[in-house]
Amino acid sequence: MFGLVDLLALIVSAFIILPVVVFLRELGYVVVSMILGVKNPRLTVGSGPRIFKIGMFDIRKYYHLYSWFSYDSLKKEGKFAYIMLYAGPILSNVIVAVTINAMLANDMMEDNTTFWNRFIFYAFYYVLFDVVPMKTANGKPNNGLIIYEMLRYGKRTDYNDEPFIPGTSEAEDQYKEEMEKIEEVKEHQKDAAEESSDSKREERQKKKEIEKEKNEQIEDLEEAGQNEGSKSR
Fold it and tell me: What residue spans define the domains of the chain?
């Protein structure tokens, strides 16, 4: 039976463990790219409007489950560099999960065993879907398939026009365009609301004028009736 304890566990998993695991996964890109001599790296946490940006960290409004890494270029390129870059996220989660598991096995974190067991579970969950070669929903290969293609054919195989990891400068331009579109939509909605408000005011004014004309006509008819009555007398 699903109870309050299970609900709390679900909330912790969804809003704490999963985002942290995803963040650690992206840090794997960062560490390896630093070794390879990365230029203009950026780790974006979340999506939507930007809250703030400190150094290479770009923090967005909707952080949940979504983080991604971008860069403009690498000093060291080639087959080995290519494989290491996409193996970075896999290795980061494996190292963290194995380390925590070893600590649990040696009774070093007994007080929060359930929490850390879930953490290990989700870390290996992402490792599984990174390691097993497959295409993702948008037609791109996952990291496992990228590495497999490089090991088998010795070259990068693109399935989409855009690169697997977009350039930071390109991503920044895309972000600005998205924010401009959002502002345009907001302005359009504001104008539409103002037009709707103006039309409602005009409609109310017309109703008032029609009501006033009706009242005046009634008064004229009553007055005419009174005049006819006085003449007949």
Answer: 4-166
